[in-house]
Amino acid sequence: MKVIVVGAGITGVSAAEWLRRDGHQVTLIDRVRPGDPAQASHGNAGILGRSGVVPVSVPGLVWKAPGMLLDRDSPLYLRLGHLPRLMPWLLRFLWNGRRGKVEEIARGLAPLVGDSVDQHLALARGTPAERFIRHGFYTAIYRDRAAFEKDSFGFALRRAHGFEWEEWDRAALREYDPELSEDYTFAAALKDHGFITSPAGYVAALAEHFEREGGTFLQGEVADIAQAGPDRNGGRGTVTLIGGARHEADRVVLAAGVWSGKLAARLGHNAAMESERGYHLTLTGVSHKPPAPYMVTDAKLGVTPMEEGLRFAGTVDFGGIDGPPRTAPLENLRRRVRQIYPRLEWDGEETWMGQRPSTVDSLPLLGASPKAPAIHFAFGGQHLGLTMGPRLGRMTADMIAGRKTNIDISAYRVDRFDRH
Fold first, then answer.
1. Which of 79, 150, 309, 322 is the most exposed place for a label (fewest CB within 10 A)?
2. Beta carbons of 359 and 379 less than 8 angstroms apart
């Protein structure tokens, strides 16, 4: 078949490459090249969070959020002018933090993330992208054991889904990473995780391999997608670029991250999605790197050794897709560096802001549109976009080929937020 994939982040590139391997004629479209800073795939923390079954909205968040907004060291930010538009999404998002609902969401996330390291290896093996994949612990560090015990709900949820960890005291932490601040005296080291040493380089390398092997990349901004022909079941998909160029294919995959929402609406679907803007500070020429990534729990901050240096990534900034970056999250990250590594030295820094595509239930939209069956959705990876991208791309290729997916996809129904 002829297939167009809209969006060249990790999910779109993965879908395009798996579709190409199936023998289809595949065109990948994005307004920027794969790996560009304008993509969420460029600047994330690089962590393959296979145990990431605990969503951001959890029991108690609704009561903590107001105080977090007033705390300058909090990882949560809000542009007040965006609040009226945000409120309907936010209320539903917080409502989904009920215990029973979180457990349901975790059941939906587990099959998408649990084998993520294997999924990345299956995609990248034998390509130049393989060199970016590393294995190791993903270690959640705490001030003390009491702070860890306050996270018992999340770790019980991880254990229920088969994830295991080692518990380290200060002596074990010192042996693992002598430069880590003595303020952190306890850790839960999650086993068998992975990380990407340059997310931008990794996605770019995958896309270059896709093109070398016969795939096509077309740079352009998509204005519209539609089903062509009166027969919805047998129709084709069309993609119209800004400027008027129109392309037709047997199938179209919508994998444009947070920008997918407007295009889904053109088909009559409500994606119930908001941008949770994240920031990173990457220090270059550093005097020290940890062996593998940390989650600094009191800062809700990922710390990852990268080819470019040491990356500190996190925060949630509700400022809308078009709002400019803020300075406060980056200043917060700079303050945190000294709290985590008091003796660290470096010679430069890079800053970045990107858009996480987050639905109200923290689950992606995956599968063919019932209103336009030639269009397949594959977006909404929230904080786990890099982790689950290859899995979403592979499942999309399976569905287009008529193969049954190996998991139940009903939790990711693309019309679940529509008014029926």
1. 322
2. no
Rounded to an integer, what distance in angstroms lies between the CA atom of residue 380 and that of residue 366? 9
Residue at 105: amino acid letter: I
Pair 249, 3: CB distance under 8 Å: yes
Token couple for 363: 């689950």
Strand, coil or helix: 241: strand
Q: Which of 334, 333, 331, 347 is CA-nearest to residue 287?
A: 347
CA pair distance 364, 367, nearest whole angstrom: 10
CA distance 190 to 40: 25
Of 335, 342, 397, the C-alpha closest to 368 is 397
The rounded distance, in Å, linking the Cα atoms of 13 and 381 is 14
Backbone angles phi, psi at 47, to 5 degrees: -90, 130
Query: At which residue do the structure tokens 């969070």 appear?
Result: 49
Distance of alpha carbon 271 from alpha carbon 89, whole angstroms? 11
User: Under CATH, what is the fold of the domain 2-412?
Assistant: FAD/NAD(P)-binding domain (3.50.50)
**Token reading at 147:** 């702070």
Residue with tokens 């300075």: 327
Domain-by-domain residue ranges, the chain? 2-412
**DSSP summary character for residue 163:** -
State the alpha helices, DSSP H only, in 29-169.
40-43, 61-70, 83-95, 99-113, 116-124, 145-149, 152-160
Q: Helices (H) and strands (E) in the chain — how many of each?
A: 13, 19
Cα-flanking dihedrals φ and ψ of residue 56, to 5°?
-65, -40
CA distances from 264 to 273, 398, 418 (A): 11, 21, 11
* Residue-by-residue pLDDT tens, the chain, 420 positions: 999 999 999 999 999 999 999 999 999 999 999 999 999 999 999 999 999 999 999 999 888 888 888 787 888 999 989 999 999 999 999 999 999 999 999 999 999 999 999 999 999 999 999 999 999 999 999 999 999 999 999 999 999 999 999 999 999 999 999 999 999 999 999 999 999 999 999 999 999 999 999 999 999 999 999 998 754 556 899 999 999 999 999 999 999 999 999 999 999 999 999 999 999 999 999 999 999 999 999 999 999 999 999 999 999 999 999 888 999 999 999 999 999 999 999 999 999 999 999 999 999 999 999 999 999 999 999 999 999 999 999 999 999 999 999 899 999 999 999 986
18 token code pair: 């798996």
